[in-house]
Input
Amino acid sequence: MKIEELFSVRGKVALVTGGSRGIGEMIARAYVENGVKVYITARKAEACDALASDLSKIGACISIPCDISRLEGIDRLGAEIERLESKLDILVNNAGASWGADFVTFPESGWDKVMDINVKAAFFLTQRLFKLLHAAGSPEDYARVINIGSIEGMRTSHLEAYSYAASKAAILHLTRMMAKYLARSHIAVNAIAPGYFPSKMTDAIAEAESEVIEGETPMQRWGRPEDMAGVAIYLASRASGFLCGSTVVVDGGLATTG
Output
């Protein structure tokens, strides 16, 4: 099989949650640039609509603003995708939140908000879209669910983001659970565990701390959009056809060699 066919995602339909910025934008842009019809969703309609308008100059990108931290929002999003499409080839569960506070003052709101969007939403949105994913999958080319975890779910971080770290550990194991049982429906579930990439979430990291992170990373830099694009295309293409329940760590060696 030629490389163009092996890594091609052209003609597929994808939904990227949290797709208006950060890693979600990197993935959405990579898919649009390579011939995927992409739906992006995010809580803030203005940002979601603006990116979809920008990406529509390149290919097909549709904005469906929605709050998927609540089941009502998940159901509304699912109903809209069902109205527009008869199948869904790729679901990227990227929407996420974080919360930092020391142990003795960490609030319940910081726990519930992060768990609801990082874990609960990924599970129930995949459940809501199961029929469309099942319709897209075949024995020769499975539909794909790509969960976005983090290296902070694999190690003990220097940051006191308790619910974030716990949620990312949960999503990586949830990936393995979903992979085991959805594979029989021709749906392959895998995960990406990013290291440090520029995003609104990492904007809060002080410059001095950013330099420490870069210094501790064997590749001596933060992630770039093309680093995430390559992995996202790989996991959505036939090149990853025998991956099931895997986590691809994209961190320049920060966690994988530590």
